[in-house]
Amino acid sequence: MPNTAPSAAAPLIVIDLQTGMFDGRFDPPIHDADTIAERARKLIDWARRSGRKVAFVRHDGPAGDPLAPGASGWPVWPQLGQAADEPTFGKTVGNAFSNAALAEWVAGQ
User: What is this structure's pTM?
Assistant: First the structure.
């Protein structure tokens, strides 16, 4: 069986965990939102303790959408505790890696 463990330097990328998916202002919160947030925080803490870099990917919805840039649902969910030096990359399609800046950041890790 091949070794599928990530390299010790592999970054953690947190994708689409935004305020609008947790706060219930526009839509019901995602299923089991509290558990998802807790698990994400544990992974983020683990990555930081192990010296891995952490980045966040935020969906940029169209104008008028709760996830549109600047809308109340757009920011990364604050309870995840994103550090000031952890970058956020935007995306407008389902594939987070369509953002060339994210691909460059990952390659640099």
Answer: 0.88
